[in-house]
Every structure is written in C-alpha cells, then in structure tokens.
Amino acid sequence: MPNVKIVDFEGTSLGERELLDAVFAAPVHMAAMHQVVVAQLANARQGTHNAKDRSDVRGSNRKLFRQKHPGRARRGSLRSPVMVGGGVAHGPHPRDYSQKVNKKLRALAMRSVLSLKVRGDRMMLLENPVLEAPKTKAVVAFLSKVGAEKKPLLVVHETNVNLYRSAANVPGAKVLHVDSLNVYDVLNHAHLIMTPEAARKVEEVFSR
Q1: Which of 30, 78, 123, 200 is the most buried (most CB within 10 A)?
Q2: Residue 55: how many other CB atoms lie within 10 Å
Q3: Is there a contact between 63 and 27 (Cβ–Cβ < 8 Å)?
Q4: Which distant-in-sequence residues (6+ apart) come within 8 Å of 106 by Cβ?
Q5: pTM for the complete prediction?
Q6: In order along the chain (208 residues), what is the average pLDDT of each group of 10 residues?
Q7: Rounded to an integer, what distance in angstroms lies between the CA atom of residue 189 and that of residue 143?
Q8: What integer pLDDT is reported at residue 96 of this predicted model?
Q9: Residue 90 and residue 83 in contact, taking contact as beta carbons nearer than 8 Å
C-alpha cells in the first residue's frame, strides 16, 4: 500500500498513513483521463455564442446595381457578408457542447490521476485545518513549510469558510469540498493536499 505523510497546519510531520492500492496505486489510464478532461471542459462551455447571418441583419434586400458591366464586384444586397455591416458568413450559433461520460470511465480516470499524484510524491494529508479567522499569511506559511507553494489543491471534508477565504488570494491555490473533487482540478494543480476524512471518503467511493 502507498504511504503518504500527514502534517498539521504548522507544517509539522505527524507520521504517515497507508492508502488503498485500489484507489491510490491503480494503473494509470491516460486515455480515460484525456476523455474525462475533454468532456469536463466541454460541459463548462455555455454555447450561447451567436452571430447574425445575412437573413438576420437589418437592411434592404434590393440589388445594388446590375449584375454585369458596372466594373465592380458583384454583390446581392447591403446584407451580403462582403459588405461592412453585413451578415457574418458561417458564423457561430447557439449549440450544446456537452459530452456524456459514464460513471465507470470517470472513476477510472479519478483513480489514475490520484495514483499519479501519489507516485510523484505530490500528495499529503492535512490534519485539522482549522483557522479562527481568514488569514492568507497563515496559508502561505503552511504551503511554504510543506513545499507546496506552486498551485496547491486543498480538499476538505466539510465546509471551511475561513480556509476558503484565506486561500482565495494565494496564486494558483484552490480549496474544494471532497464532493466536488474532479479529474481536471487534480491534474491542473501541482500538489494535492487532503484531510484524512476526505481521503477516507474518496477511498469509499472509488474503491467499489
């Protein structure tokens, strides 16, 4: 079983903990991670972009001049795409970008990305991350002590408003509830820091 270190908010090491092989030492499936990330980014798109084509633009549809012999490029009306203020040729229209990913594939991708973090020694457990008040300096000091200053992802098992606010001004840092854990955020952050309770819940969900 893989071992990860446990630290407190002062950066002091509290020992190590074994994690489940099925979740944190699983085979890495690159294709699954790629497909899930592409789908997640696609699902985040609103798809509300729209451009007016020549039928949507206001203006006369009268032919401007005779077709032949005027010595100018032929164009049908003021609404032609070749005219300034005319319609857009082949412009975007509202569409649904969402992609479906089944549960087994998503779970496979999550196990793969969590195993990558453990293998790269980029994961640790944080015991009792309690702050009495929002304080960015405290989060910066903690990340510096544990060597996770670059793009850390903190995953907690319960709502922690002070931690959310304290990490909000730390460049690249993000705090997630364990229920919102996703493949893209784990891949997009260099370090993964979880509470032991959050790690236990991840093991329960993804070891099935």
Answers
A1: 123
A2: 8
A3: no
A4: 36, 183
A5: 0.84
A6: 89 91 94 97 96 92 90 88 92 96 96 96 91 91 92 93 92 95 96 95 91
A7: 13
A8: 96
A9: no
Structure tokens at 76: 């049908």
Smallest CA-to-CA distance from 184 within 38, 18, 22 is with 38
Contact between 189 and 172 under an 8 Å Cβ cutoff? The reply is yes
Q: Exposed, middle or buried: residue 133 (CB in 10 Å: 0-12, 13-18, 19+)?
A: exposed
CA dist., res. 62 & res. 65, Å (int) = 9
pLDDT at 160 (0 to 100): 86
- Alpha-carbon 71 to chain mean position: 55
Distance between CA atoms of 160 and 131, rounded to whole angstroms? 9
d(CA 190, CA 188): 7
Q: Which of 134, 200, 203 is nearest to 167 (CA)?
A: 134
**How far is the C-alpha of 140 from the C-alpha of 86, rounded, in Å?**
54
How many beta carbons lie within 10 A of that of residue 9, not counting itself? 18
Q: Which of the 8 DSSP states describes residue 26? A: P
